[in-house]
Amino acid sequence: MLKNIEQLKKADQEAIERKRVRNKEMIAEVEKVNKVALGKKSEKIQKEKNEDLEIVRYEAEKRAREEMALEEERKIKDEKEKEIQRLRDLQERAADRQSEIDALRQKRAFEEGERAARSKEILEADKRAR
Question: What is the DSSP letter of 1?
Fold first, then answer.
């Protein structure tokens, strides 16, 4: 009977040991699965962060391109306005110069008319005097 009790105790101990080993293996498996899951979760979070950064970078580059395009449009508009103003100034100077030339021609024509009239008066006076 003692032998039987010893065998039962030994069998219980072996069963407990097998259960402990099995529990340990299960815990190890659960930890392994958790580690893989955490790794995947971490990778997913990092991927989302990278995607967010890429979106932010893209939007910043897009804004920079749009600002450059607006600046280029403003520059072209300013250059066109300057060219238009330059042409207006040239046109105004040309018109002023033409006005001066016309005024000078008119003055010369008037003076020529006066000279002709005086000359005619002198000739008529000479004719009358003779």
Answer: -
Residue 95 CA to residue 88 CA, distance in Å, equals 10
DSSP code string of 42-53: HHHHHHHHHHHH
Residue 77 and residue 59: Cα distance in Å, rounded?
27
- Rounded Cα distance between 36 and 54, Å, is 26
Q: What is the 3-state secondary structure (H, E, C) of 57-110?
A: HHHHHHHHHHHHHHHHHHHHHHHHHHHHHHHHHHHHHHHHHHHHHHHHHHHHHH
The 10s digit of each residue's pLDDT in 70-93 is: 999 999 999 999 999 999 999 999
Work out the mean pLDDT of the chain and round it to a whole number. Answer: 94
Cα end-to-end span (Å), the chain: 189
Q: What is the pLDDT of residues 6-36, one digit of tens each?
A: 888 888 899 999 999 999 999 999 999 999 9
Residue type, 104: L
**CA-derived radius of gyration, the chain:** 55
